[in-house]
UniProtKB/TrEMBL annotation:
Gene3D superfamilies: 3.40.50.880, Carbamoyl-phosphate synthase small subunit, N-terminal domain (3.50.30.20). Pfam families: CPSase_sm_chain, GATase. Residues 1-191 are annotated as: CPSase. NCBIfam families: CPSaseIIsmall, PRK12838.1. One of its GO terms (biological process) is glutamine metabolic process. The gene is carA. This is Carbamoyl phosphate synthase small chain. InterPro entries: Anth_synth/Amidotransfase, CarbamoylP_synth_ssu, CarbamoylP_synth_ssu_N, CarbP_synth_ssu_N_sf, Class_I_gatase-like, CPSase_GATase1, GATASE. Residues 3-133 form the Carbamoyl-phosphate synthase small subunit N-terminal domain. GO terms for molecular function: ATP binding; carbamoyl-phosphate synthase (glutamine-hydrolyzing) activity. Belongs to the CarA family. Pathway: Amino-acid biosynthesis; L-arginine biosynthesis; carbamoyl phosphate from bicarbonate: step 1/1; Pyrimidine metabolism; UMP biosynthesis via de novo pathway; (S)-dihydroorotate from bicarbonate: step 1/3. PANTHER family: CARBAMOYL-PHOSPHATE SYNTHASE SMALL CHAIN (PTHR43418:SF7), MULTIFUNCTIONAL TRYPTOPHAN BIOSYNTHESIS PROTEIN-RELATED (PTHR43418).
Length: 373
């Protein structure tokens, strides 16, 4: 017999549907992702820590789950909401269906609700805190709990996804199909990159490896002297969850590193770099999450379709004169990339590792490799 699950939002709205995956109660910021594919990459992206994710594409789970597509060791979302779950995946790569995967990893799922109505509410009101439960079915209790939850602003979520210790990335680069579509064979000359992991997607390390880098991963909280002691040719700043302004120690470390080595940042790494350079960040109303965001490269004049997952942004007007905007989001004109005019430092808000998503921006890894030369 189908089990009921409910989602309650802080504004008093309640959605009732069918449960899948694990049972229990979970909380988080309710957000939405507009990708048509890539639900496994979404589930395992550490940037979603603390969030209940709604997929706008109506049919999810149709190609199952394979470990080759994981972006971390486990699913990171607090809960998962879809319009309709596919009970029988059809894909020769599939190892387990989505329902079984969420059960195995203790993630609660909800289907059979009007996801269009939910997403519209989030677009109008902004991202809202919520409670997702299969055991508490009283609307008043659920909405009361949701209203008492803290928002994402001011929260240090990085501490929940940091690696325990430094390690060398010893896995391969891109899978053969992605290699042919994105960057091609690896260069023979290797550069040593120290990657500060604030919740890094694995495909970033694969892309760095594919572009000709030997990658050492360290926790994002590592000190500047320890990072420089590894004698890197370049320093990479990863994606991650939460409010960048809450990471004062990380910002101070970057201020010590700027000018010492070439630096490349993605997503949270971009935001932290913007703060370290003297800029400010702010929370977006409902964020950018999906693999279809148009970005203008102001240097080349080309438009790139990009993968994105962020709820905060760097205020372009707050950047000092020695820092210039390089990429702009064409939907809302927010800052998507910056670079220092004199130092070998640049970053982008979106995800050029494109997992899942288009490959328009893979050139950035090659640019970083050349900058380290």
């Amino acid at each position: 017999m189908s089990k009921i699950a409910k989602l309650a939002l802080e504004d008093g709205t309640v959605f009732t549907g069918k449960a899948f995956g694990a049972t229990g109660t979970t909380t988080g910021e309710v957000v939405f992702n507009t990708s048509m594919t890539g639900y496994q990459e979404t589930l395992t992206d550490p940037s979603y820590k603390g969030q209940i994710v709604t997929m706008t594409y109506p049919l999810i789970g149709n190609y199952g789950i394979t470990t080759d597509d994981d972006e971390s060791q486990r699913p990171q979302v607090e809960g998962f909401i879809v319009r309709e779950l596919t009970p029988l995946p059809s894909n020769f790569r599939s190892q387990i269906d989505l329902d079984g995967y969420l059960k195995k990893n203790n993630i609660i799922g909800l289907e059979k609700i009007d996801t269009r109505a939910l997403v519209r509410r989030l677009r109008v009101r902004g991202s809202l805190t919520g409670v997702l439960s299969t055991e508490i079915l009283d609307d008043v209790e659920l909405t009361t709990r949701a209203a008492q939850l803290p928002g994402m602003t001011g929260q240090d979520m990085v501490k929940k996804v940091l690696p325990e210790k430094a390690f060398s990335w010893d896995k391969e680069g891109l899978l053969p199909l992605a290699e042919s579509m994105m960057m091609g064979p690896q260069p023979t000359t290797k550069r040593h990159v120290v990657a500060l992991d604030y919740g890094m997607k694995w495909n970033i390390a694969r892309c760095l490896t594919q572009s000709g880098c030997r990658v050492t991963v360290v926790p994002g909280t590592a000190k500047a002297e320890d990072i420089l002691a590894l004698k890197p040719d370049g320093i990479f700043l990863s994606n991650g969850p939460g409010d960048p302004a809450a990471l004062g120690g990380c910002i101070e470390t970057l201020q010590e590193l700027i000018g010492k080595r070439p630096i490349f940042g993605i997503c949270l790494g971009h935001q932290l770099l913007g703060l370290a350079l003297g800029g400010k960040t702010f929370k977006l109303k409902f964020g950018h999450r999906g693999s279809n965001q148009p970005v203008l490269n102001q240097i080349t004049g080309k438009v790139e379709i990009t993968t994105q997952n962020h709820g905060f942004a760097v205020d372009a007007n707050s950047l000092p004169s020695e820092v210039e905007a390089t990429h702009i989001n064409l939907n809302d004109q927010t800052l998507e990339g910056l670079r220092h005019k004199k130092l070998p430092v640049f970053s982008v808000q979106y995800h050029p590792e494109a997992s899942a998503g288009p490959h328009d921006s893979s050139y950035l890894f090659e640019d970083f490799w050349k900058m380290m030369g």
